[in-house]
Each structure stands twice: as structure tokens, then as C-alpha cells.
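C-alpha cells for chain A. Residues wanted.
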């Protein structure tokens, strides 16, 4: 599935309201063995990705095949904080495509 959003604020607002909020909370109670990932690409630079419940994969999907993967803990739970980190890496001229986060993020 591919989605396009007008801006990050619209995406974030949708993620924090029903029905998405309910789906996310239910997924964290019991994923039922279903894993997912999402990758976000920003027109003005920056990439961030989240991989959840994808254990047992030799090489992760998408960006996880070549970008460093860090656990989605603490401030990395927040999409806004992940975006800020990705944008800082982009502005600073860091090599690579940014970082991929692994693990469950807290429900919004």
C-alpha cells in the first residue's frame, strides 16, 4: 500500500486518532504473528522507517537491508522525533539513507 500525505502534521494527526489509534493499540496487545514496516520519505530530504514484529528475517526489508538499525526506544518511539533525527542527518550531510528503527513503538 502506498499513501501520500499533504504534510507531516496531517499524517501525524491521522495516526493519533481513530481508527488508526485503535488498530495500533490492538496490534500492540497482540500482533497475531503479523509483522509490518513502513518507510517515510520526505520531499525536502530525510527518510525514516519502522519495522515491527519481523523477527527471523536474515536481512530486513527495505532500508533495513543497508541502513543501520536502532531499537525504537525512548525518543525513537515518536515519529516526530525520528523525523527530526533523519532531517538532522540529512542537513549534516551524513552518509547513507538515515536510520531504520526496529521494534514496537508506543501507541499514539
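Reply:
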Amino acid at each position: 500500500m502506498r499513501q501520500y500525505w499533504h504534510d507531516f502534521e496531517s499524517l501525524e494527526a491521522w495516526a493519533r486518532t481513530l481508527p488508526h489509534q485503535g488498530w495500533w493499540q490492538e496490534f500492540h496487545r497482540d500482533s497475531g504473528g503479523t509483522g509490518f514496516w513502513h518507510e517515510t520519505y520526505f520531499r525536502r530530504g530525510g527518510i525514516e522507517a519502522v519495522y515491527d514484529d519481523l523477527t527471523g528475517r536474515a536481512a530486513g526489508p527495505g532500508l533495513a537491508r543497508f541502513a543501520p538499525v536502532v531499537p525504537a526506544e525512548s525518543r525513537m518511539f515518536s515519529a516526530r522525533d525520528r523525523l527530526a533525527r533523519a532531517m538532522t542527518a540529512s542537513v549534516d550531510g551524513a552518509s547513507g539513507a538515515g536510520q531504520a528503527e526496529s521494534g514496537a513503538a508506543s501507541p499514539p
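Confidence is low (pLDDT under 50) at residues 94-99, 104-108. The chain has one domain: 8-102.
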